[in-house]
Task: inverse folding
């Protein structure tokens, strides 16, 4: 969130004023968001292999809850400038009525479409050999990297990582920690360095600037992100962790945390109006500021989602039960 905000075109001049450490540190934060979402698809594919379908009704309802909440927050804060900047009234209506298709959370749209297509996809995958599966994953990788249409690209991105999860489960892939951990560290540093170079390239006015930018994104999204995501999934899937109520409670709120803080509207509210990240980006205490802000955001969003789970979700279930009973009668 911090990096995405300070690396917007309107703030890159501020980013460029900072010293090397601040700029490089912020670049190292960038892979986190994309890696987290892609692991979500790997997990979905892993557990979907022995299922008939993926359930998206709960995910759909949570997205609508936060779409409504963000809409209310925009009205309360009277932050109408951000509304005009990112699509005006049409964008708000979409966020309120069909947030799953608003484009704010690309992976929700992709997940819902893939949930519908999953039975056919699994039938196709189960009849393939290992070699055929590798070829299919490679084809999806090429299509996902080269497709110029954003709507189709987000679907192909989700499909690519879903197939990685299916492949891991189908062939019971195991990789030892002495391999996964170094690969995660190395490719995370490479990803951060690539993003750092991409931002520097923003100020490059030469004719090859566009090609450099495209190359950076291919390396980051096409190589670093898949390797980091896959290795992190394999690392944690092989850990023997005892059941913990605390861990399960925190884990149950992570999806809500992501939806609440990682979108255009909340990003502007959090990093501009609350934490003023651009003004402190060049200061000597930026690292401490970033750590404190991230911790506060996590705790606040987790508390809000816990309230949703504890109070709002049971209420919705009661209403759903009444409506279902009414139509049955």
Result:
């Amino acid at each position: 969130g911090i990096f995405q905000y300070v690396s917007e075109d309107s703030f890159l001049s501020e980013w460029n004023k900072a010293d090397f450490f601040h700029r490089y540190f912020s670049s190292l934060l960038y892979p986190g968001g994309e890696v987290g979402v892609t692991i979500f698809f790997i997990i979905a594919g892993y557990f979907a292999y022995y299922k008939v379908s993926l359930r998206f009704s709960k995910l759909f309802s949570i997205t609508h809850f936060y779409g409504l909440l963000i809409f209310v927050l925009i009205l309360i804060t009277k932050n109408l400038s951000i509304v005009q900047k990112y699509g005006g009234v049409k964008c708000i209506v979409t966020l309120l009525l069909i947030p799953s298709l608003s484009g704010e959370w690309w992976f929700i749209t992709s997940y819902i479409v893939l949930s519908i297509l999953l039975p056919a996809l699994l039938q196709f995958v189960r009849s393939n050999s290992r070699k055929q599966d590798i070829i299919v994953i490679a084809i999806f990788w090429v299509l996902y990297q080269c497709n110029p249409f954003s709507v189709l690209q987000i679907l192909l991105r989700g499909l690519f990582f879903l197939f990685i999860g299916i492949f891991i489960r189908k062939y019971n892939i195991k990789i030892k920690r002495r391999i996964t951990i170094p690969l995660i560290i190395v490719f995370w540093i490479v990803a951060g360095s690539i993003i750092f170079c991409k931002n520097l390239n923003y100020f490059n006015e030469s004719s090859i600037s566009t090609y450099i930018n495209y190359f950076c994104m291919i390396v980051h999204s096409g190589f670093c992100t898949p390797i980091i995501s896959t290795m992190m999934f394999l690392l944690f899937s092989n850990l023997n962790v005892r059941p913990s109520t605390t861990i399960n409670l925190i884990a149950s709120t992570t999806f809500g945390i992501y939806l609440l803080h990682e979108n255009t509207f909340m990003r502007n509210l959090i990093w501009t109006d609350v934490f003023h990240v651009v003004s402190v980006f060049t200061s000597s205490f930026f690292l401490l500021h970033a750590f404190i802000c991230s911790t506060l955001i996590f705790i606040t969003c987790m508390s809000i989602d816990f309230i949703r789970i504890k109070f709002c979700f049971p209420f919705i279930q009661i209403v759903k039960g009444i409506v279902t009973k009414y139509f049955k009668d």
Q: What stands out?
A: The CA atoms of residues 69 and 210 lie 39 Å apart. The radius of gyration is 21 Å. The longest helix spans residues 286-328. The chain is about 80% helix and 0% strand.
